[in-house]
Amino acid sequence: LHLVALNFPFSGDMRADFQCFQQARLAGLTSTYRAFLSSHLQDLATVVRKMDRYHLPVVNLKGETLFSNWESIFDGNGGQFNIHVPIYSFDGRNIMTDSSWPQKVIWHGSTANGIRLVSNYCEAWHTADMGAMGQASPLKTGKLLDQKVYSCNNQFIVLCIENSYV
């Protein structure tokens, strides 16, 4: 399952699933991509199909392993990953080193176990209001699900996960 970043940062007001779908298609990828976000309809932990959660590794765009499987992201350790394995955008840039993402923080809107935090997901990712809050993770911690709260007007990284392997 490929974990890929959108090609530019977003505030808390985003059509993330649509962006993931569109940018994956533009990059020539044919499987389905969903936003790595909890939403008003779904917890982050359940974005990937049940049958694909345990046996497929989570890899970057170049096939390098980030996690042994989807479930291992939600073991309560905050999605600990090797920061020396890059995460790439759909257009092939390393989000950890590229200046297009000045703040190395990803939106997720979830607990460390991938459950939605309705008080901290930018009103279901529909507002960039300074007074609204969103749960996010500074990547320098080496965690995808670190528990930090930021104003929804911030422009952060949005990740997409291949949610059905073809």
TrEMBL record:
GO-annotated cellular components: collagen trimer
Give all residue intervals belonging to the Collagenase NC10/endostatin domain. 1-166
Question: Keyword set for this entry?
Answer: Collagen
Please verify whether the record's keywords include Repeat. no
Q: Which CDD domains match?
A: Endostatin-like
Report the SUPFAM superfamilies cross-referenced here. C-type lectin-like (SSF56436)
InterPro entries named in the record: C-type_lectin-like/link_sf, Collagenase_NC10/endostatin, CTDL_fold
Q: What's the protein called, per UniProt?
A: Collagen alpha-1(XV) chain
Please give the organism. Acanthisitta chloris
